[in-house]
Amino acid sequence: MRTALVIGTGLIGTSVALALAQRGVVVHLDDHDPEQARTAAALGAGTEEPPAGPVDLAVVAAPPAHVASLLADAMTRGVARGYLDVASVKGGPRRELEARGLDLSAYIGTHPMSGREKSGPLAATADLFEGRPWVLTPTRDTDTEVLNLALELVSHCRAVPVVMDADAHDRAVALVSHMPHLVSSLVAARLEHAEESAVRLCGGGIRDVTRIAASDPRMWIDILSANPGPVADLLSDVAADLDGTVRALRALQSSDEDKRGEGAAGIADVLRRGNAGQVRVPGKHGSAPRAYEAVVVLIDDQPGQLARIFADAGAAGVNIEDVRIEHATGRQAGLVQLMVEPKAALLLSAALRERGWALRQ
C-alpha cells in the first residue's frame, strides 16, 4: 500500500491516517468539515489535497448511518482500488450497499475494537489500535486483493485481525460494547441529582462502572440506531435480571425468615453468575484472566511519583502486571494498586517499604 484516502477525520479516521503516515503511506484526507481535515493534516495525518488518481485504499470513517452513502459515492467515482469502512456496525451498511446494486467485490467491512471517551482529530493517536482486535467481515464476493489491503492496514496499525460474519459481529458488539454503554449511562444518570454528600463518597467502583458514560451522546445515538434489535434483546434480559434482583432485595427486608432466605439465594445467584461471566473476560495479551495480588501504596499527587514507584518495583525485579489508581477525595493523594503475581507480592511490599513508601492493606 502506497497511497490511501481517509474519508472522515474524527478520532478513528485520524488515528488510522496517523498510523499509515508513520509507515510511509501517502494519506489524503477528506471530511465534510474542512476545518477538521485541516486539524488532522496539521497533526501529521496526511494532506488535504485530493489524490491525482485512484489510491490503493479508501477508508470511510463515519457514523454507521452515513457509511453506505459515502462508500457508494467513492465507489461510483472510482477513487480507489479497494474500499473499507471502520463503523461499529457491519450488517446494515452492507445491506444498504447491496440494495444500491453496487459491485461489492472491492469492498470489505471492518471494525477496529478501540476508541476513547473523547472524539475528534485532537483525540487521535497513531497507537490507538495497538494490540486491539480489528474485525474483518469478508464475504465470498470479496476480492483477495482487497482482503490483503485490509490486512495490511491492520498490520500498519499494529492491531490483531479477527475474521467474523457481519451479523455475528453486530450481535457480539451489542453484548460487549453497545449494551454495556447504555448500562453505564443508566448508572451514571443516578448521580445527576444525587446529594453532594453522596457523590463525594464516589470511589473506584463507581468510576469503573460509569467511565464510558462520558462519551459523546450524538455519536452513540448513531451507533445504537444502526444496531437497535440486538441491544434491545440484551437489555430485555438485563431488565429481567434486575426485576428478579429487586424482588430478592425486597425479600431480604421481610420479617419472614423463609422469605429472607429466598432473597439471599436470589442475590447469591446473580453474584455467582456475575463471577462466572467476569472470569471469561480476556486478560493480559488476550489470555485467560489470571489472579493477581494487589500491593496498595499511598502516593502524593506530585510529578514523578508513579515513575519512582515503577522504577523501585523494577529494581526489586518485580513485573507490574496491571495498575489501578484511586484518588482520595479532598486530598492531594491517592492509592495505587500494583497488580503482581501472588508470589511476588511479599517481595515487592518489602522492597517498597525499604524505599520509604507507605503501604495500605
From TrEMBL:
Q: Which Gene3D superfamilies match?
A: 6-phosphogluconate dehydrogenase C-terminal like domain (1.10.3660.10), NAD(P)-binding Rossmann-like Domain (3.40.50.720)
Leading EC class = oxidoreductase
Q: What Enzyme Commission number(s) appear in the record? A: 1.3.1.12
Q: Which GO terms describe its molecular function?
A: NAD+ binding; prephenate dehydrogenase (NAD+) activity; prephenate dehydrogenase (NADP+) activity
Q: Does the keyword Metal-binding apply?
A: no
- Keywords carried by this UniProt record: Amino-acid biosynthesis, Aromatic amino acid biosynthesis, NAD, Oxidoreductase, Tyrosine biosynthesis
PROSITE patterns assigned = ACT, PDH_ADH
Where does the Prephenate/arogenate dehydrogenase domain start and stop, copy by copy? 2-283
Q: Pathway listed for it?
A: Amino-acid biosynthesis; L-tyrosine biosynthesis; (4-hydroxyphenyl)pyruvate from prephenate (NAD(+) route): step 1/1
One Pfam family this sequence matches: PDH_C
Catalysed reactions listed for this entry? prephenate + NAD(+) = 3-(4-hydroxyphenyl)pyruvate + CO2 + NADH
Family annotation (InterPro entries): 6-PGluconate_DH-like_C_sf, ACT_dom, NAD(P)-bd_dom_sf, PDH_C, PDH_N, Preph/Arog_dehydrog, Prephen_DH
Q: Where is the ACT domain?
A: 294-361
One record GO biological process: tyrosine biosynthetic process
| Family per similarity comment | Belongs to the prephenate/arogenate dehydrogenase family.
Q: Which NCBIfam families match?
A: PRK06545.2-1, PRK06545.2-3, PRK06545.2-4
Name of the protein:
Prephenate dehydrogenase
Taxonomic source organism: Streptomyces longwoodensis
